[in-house]
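Case study.
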Amino acid sequence: MVCEPWKAKLDTYLDGELPEQEMRTCDAHVRGCPSCSTDVLARVQMKRAIQVAGKRFVPSSGFRTRIEQSITPKPQRSFRLGWMLAAATAVVLAVGTLTSIYLGARSGKNTASRDRVYSEIADLHVATLASPSPVDVISTDRHTVKPWFQGKIPFAFNLPELQNSEFSLLGGRMTYLDQTPGAHLIYDVRKHHISVFVFQERSLSLKLSARLDDNSLSPKQLPFNMETWSQGGLRYFVIGDASAADIDSLAKLFKAAS
Amino acid sequence: MPHFDRLYNFACWLTRDRQEAEDLVQETYVKALKGFPSFQPGTNFRAWIYKILRNTFLTSRTGLKATATVPLDLEGEEEILPAVEETPESILLQRSDGQLVQQALEQLPVAYREVLLLCEVEEMSYQEISATLAIPMGTVMSRLSRARKALHNGLRPQFQKG
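After joint prediction, the assembly is written out as follows.
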């Protein structure tokens, strides 16, 4: 049978793990062979069923908080009362000054919440770039990247036209924030990588969204430049080590496209 | 905390107990934080943290119990997976709410369950799976093939009922 050598490789083919040349040959065979294409269809259905069944357990918000608290480094305590008092006074003064200058009327709680969101977004950005395969859909074509997200995330969004800009699209992947699925897109500008995250605003917890006022994150205190805004029911984050002007330009392109 | 939700899901599948899964995830993050200086930038962070979680699981009481009951012939001679052609099964698979597949996954030995989840749910490449499970690429392929066959066999009685 002509099919036999391919039958054994169908799973590897569907996992996208055959060598490039073999992938093409197998693809051509499957398209022309009714038996193999039926087999492939059944295997795809099984893969999807495992995917759906496998995404089963969601951590509680209480557990998330507990873990965050347990892995946050605790400040070293000084046993000398004098030093403690001096340090406490200095901290109170510093916090008071910073609060009055930078944060105005905003409460400390809001700052902590914003910092947590920033920290999560920065973690996602850095962890993705550290990976040898940062994107799951590799394409510079927005018409390829956008449809890839269909059925993977519970919303649709528009990607900007980049023809006359310095930005280029590298690809995209699925991501999670606050237990909410979203889209993660990676752009390149002058060798800098910029991540754009898109989430459904109503899916993010109210506590989180309410504290993410547009451009409320102060880039002066952060190692990355970042912008966030809400538009059309979606929450956008643009983050990277590129200049604030570049981050702003990409954010504007997204705002115009939405 | 990158990969938090997915690590938790994977931990639940390994331990099959939410409380144990929470302990496992917590221990993983503590170990990852302590061992972070040993993480080499540019290498795969996801495979690194999943490996920590899995090794922690394997040395836990549940992990030792689960692996002790696994048949030793997991890595026998390469075997070609028979074609999955039964169309009625596929139709049933489409219609079912995923519960049948969940039950069949639960019944699999942990070595099969983890490799299937890493491939299908975490969508890891064979190379990433090889790094996570610390096994050669060839073993990843043969174990995946056997795991798929075992899952298929596990679902067969359900299909016959349906």
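Observations recorded in class. Chain B touches chain A through 56 residues (CB under 8 Å). Residues 3 and 18 of chain B are 17 Å apart (CA to CA). We will return to this complex in the next lecture.
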